[in-house]
Specification:
about 400 residues; about 50% helix; TIM Barrel; two-stranded antiparallel ribbon; 19 helices; binds coproporphyrinogen III; 7-stranded parallel sheet
């Protein structure tokens, strides 16, 4: 197996692949900055690059979490969720836990999309049963402070990159490690609203009445997200996902400016630095806006929520794009034949395409482990040649 070490200086990046392969060492250095194996990349990376793999790789959003007793046991030792995320031994351990049980094809870094606001000096606490609470960003003085803090953000999140390199070092070469960040719009909703669970009137009013100021906030998030994901990739992430969980809150007229454009800027910058690392975009609830999102952002793969009919996605989204999704998360909580049938419907609808099996959104804490086992067994057994 040939391993390409991280090559970040611009002149080397321009070298053709065969020359970089020649320059690269033959052994896998687990502490190397990038551990993507070009000769034999993990199954997930091959699918994300558009290959119609014989078996569909799978992972589940929020696959590390409270439905796992081993997660709850470790989490009990750290009541402060932000500190838990920034504790590399603990974060690495919970990143790996679901793969030990279910053999997913990818681990997703254990962290949170709100670590960027935290590193921007926004006060952040996760309240039991309530979710995140942040000091709201609503005026020019607050945006000024963010702009001043921005250059230090990527450096402040060094603990996250240490988690990435620990996980990459512990993972089998055929398993992928997915890094991630929130998309600027979704992170901005939490920053302006001061938390989640609102109707988005405050952030939408901000964007509509003070678009220039809101643009400055989004620009801070674009720049810090690029630097943060760049560092995750240097530390060993094989692919990255951008979570735009609240794309659903944007009317069509604003979707282009606050979802598509910032995502495109992040993809362009990351691709220039790491052309071999696939980027997954997840614009949840974007509906027909997904067609524009898919083409204008130049993502490699598109995460689909359960509102998207699998057949629509197969027909309407560009053939070069890898599809990822999109089982209704309630069905994995319910299990049984309803879950099986819905999983097979996705596998069947996408069998002519490159795809990754996932849920339409995150696993919830009430999901029985037996159901995750059952779905994983279906996915391990499925082969593209099958018609169902
Ligand atoms: O997927 C994974 O397993 C990796 C880890 C991960 C977490 N958050 C851990 C987490 C990922 C990818 C996220 C992303 C995230 N965080 C999103 C986007 C994806 C999505 O689900 O829509 C959002 C919107 C957040 C913000 C966030 N973090 C909220 C609103 C909450 C509270 C809700 C809840 O479930 O309690 C969190 C907390 C959080 N992030 C938990 C986990 C495992 C639960 C914390 C706990 O253990 O108490």
């Amino acid at each position: 197996m040939t391993v390409i070490p991280a090559i970040n200086s611009p002149p080397l990046q321009l070298l053709p692949l065969f020359l970089r392969l020649l320059l690269s060492g033959k052994t896998r250095d687990l502490s190397a900055e990038t551990s993507v194996t070009e000769a034999d990349p993990p199954l997930l990376v091959r699918a994300l690059r558009g290959e119609r793999t014989a078996r569909a790789p799978f992972w589940f959003m929020r696959q590390a979490g409270r439905y796992l007793p081993e997660y709850r046991a470790l989490r009990q030792q750290s009541p402060d969720f932000v500190r838990f995320c920034l504790n590399p031994p603990h974060a690495a351990e919970v990143t790996l836990q679901p793969l030990r049980r279910f053999g997913m094809d990818a681990a997703i870094l254990f962290a949170d999309i709100l670590l960027i606001p935290h590193a921007l000096d926004v006060d952040l606490v996760f309240k039991e049963g309530e979710g995140p609470v942040l000091s709201p960003v609503r005026d020019a003085a607050a945006v000024d402070r963010l702009e001043k803090a921005a250059p230090a953000v990527a450096g402040r999140l060094a603990a996250v990159y240490e988690t990435v390199s620990r996980v990459r070092g512990a993972l089998d070469p055929d398993k992928a490690l997915i890094g991630f960040a929130g998309s600027p719009w979704t992170v901005a909703t939490y920053m302006v609203e001061g938390g989640g669970g609102h109707d988005f009137r405050t952030v939408r009013r901000f964007a509509l009445t003070e678009p220039d100021l809101f643009q400055r906030l989004v620009d801070v998030l674009v720049d810090t997200t690029i630097a943060y994901l760049d560092r995750q990739i240097q530390a060993g992430a094989d692919a990255v996902q951008l979570f735009d969980t609240w794309a659903s809150a944007l009317p069509a007229a604003e979707f282009e400016r606050w979802c598509v454009a910032p995502t495109a800027a992040i993809v362009t910058a990351l691709r220039a630095r790491h052309p071999h690392v696939p980027i997954i975009g997840f614009a949840r609830g974007a509906g027909t806006g997904l067609v524009r999102y898919a083409t204008a952002t130049r993502i490699d793969a598109i995460g689909l929520d359960a509102g998207v009919a699998p057949a629509w996605a197969a027909d309407q989204l560009p053939q070069s794009l890898c599809l990822q999704g999109n089982l209704d998360p309630l069905l994995i909580a319910i299990g049984g034949t309803a879950m099986d049938a819905a999983a097979h419907a996705i596998l069947s609808a996408w069998r002519q395409r490159a795809f990754v099996f996932n849920l339409g959104h995150g696993i919830t804490p009430d999901v029985p482990i037996a159901n995750v086992d059952r779905l994983s067994a279906i996915l391990h057994a499925w082969r593209r040649e099958q018609t169902s």
